[in-house]
Write a structure and sequence with these properties.
By secondary structure, this protein is an alpha+beta fold. The chain contains nine helices and four strands. It starts with a helix and ends with a helix.
Length: about 170
């Protein structure tokens, strides 16, 4: 069963969740499949190699090991992901840490116009419309998407660094 799970994780386009495996293993419960997925990931990650199985966005996904990212980028002739402008990154940070948040609230925090950055984040599916605020005018509320979790390798928003950790990381980089 573990070898089959490993193969499924390898070919899957999206993180594999236990409930998706119930069709493949009909006699198993969601809980036993979740334990088996964790066991598969632990066993796979104990082996040396360039790949790892990580828990991302509520499922399991095969990824390259972080320590090899620079060599992989060199091989692929790419640069670190710089496809988002600084305005988009700032807007994304506000949404990630303050969600659900309105455009006006983003503007108040950033102090700059954010509509074009927000539009870019919506196009890239990193941010999603999550509802409307129950106030006069009913402005749209924004939050991060599942694609955000996948893109940044997070299992949930709880995995985001705290603002204190973020400040410490930033000061170490400078």
């Amino acid at each position: 069963m573990l070898a089959v799970m490993e193969a499924i994780i390898y070919v899957a386009d999206e993180p594999v969740k236990p409930e998706q495996l119930q069709e493949v293993f009909p006699g198993e419960t969601k809980e036993s499949l979740e334990r088996a997925l964790r066991t598969t990931a632990e066993a796979f990650n104990e082996r040396p190699g360039g790949m790892a199985i990580r828990e991302v966005a509520g499922g399991f996904r095969m990824t390259t090991r972080p320590e090899y990212h620079e060599q992989i980028r060199e091989y692929l002739k790419t640069r670190p992901n710089a496809k988002l402008s600084m305005a988009s990154l700032e807007t994304l940070a506000v949404v990630a840490y303050k969600q659900p948040v309105t455009l006006a609230e983003i503007l108040a925090i950033r102090g700059k116009k954010s509509s074009s950055a927000l539009h870019t984040l919506l196009e890239k599916n990193l941010v999603a419309i999550v509802g409307r605020k129950q106030v006069v005018g009913r402005p749209i509320l924004y939050g991060t998407s599942r694609e955000f979790l996948i893109h940044f390798g997070l299992n949930s928003l709880k995995d985001l660094p705290t603002l204190e950790e973020f400040a410490q990381l930033a000061s170490e980089q400078l």
